[in-house]
Amino acid sequence: MFTLEKIRMINTKGDKHGTITVRICEIENFEVTTLRIDVVTDGRRVAVQFTTDWQLYANRRDLTINSIYFRFYGRIASETDRHDELTLKAIRANAQSLAHISGERI
């Protein structure tokens, strides 16, 4: 997928858990995590199985609003609750405020 879009992968150390870092336009890094479920875990280590089922993946998250799924080209999809635009607007506003206070990008 990234090769097709000519997006450079710069860190694949987390590949066995489904997380890699990509560099967009040689400007900004993003961590990208594939859909996965925990198969075996002892509280410290985990064996994962990759899936294509958004709901199954979302079930492993601990908060309803914890996961907002981004699709390519800037579309936001929250498959579990389909948050309304007002909720998403509030999240964006809070993230911008926190970034302004801390000086870090969120």
UniProtKB/TrEMBL annotation:
Record's keyword terms, sorted: Magnesium, Metal-binding, Nucleotidyltransferase, RNA-binding, Transferase, tRNA processing
InterPro entries linked to this entry: Bact_CCA-adding_enz_type3_sf, NT_sf, PolA_pol_head_dom
Protein name according to UniProt: Poly A polymerase head domain-containing protein
Residue ranges annotated for the Poly A polymerase head domain, each copy included: 6-76
Top-rank taxon, per record: Eukaryota
Cofactor or coenzyme needed: Mg(2+)
GO BP term, pick one: tRNA 3'-terminal CCA addition
Cited Pfam families: PolyA_pol
Database matches in Gene3D superfamilies: Beta Polymerase, domain 2 (3.30.460.10)
CC per GO annotation: mitochondrion
GO molecular function: metal ion binding; nucleotidyltransferase activity; tRNA binding
Annotated family: Belongs to the tRNA nucleotidyltransferase/poly(A) polymerase family.
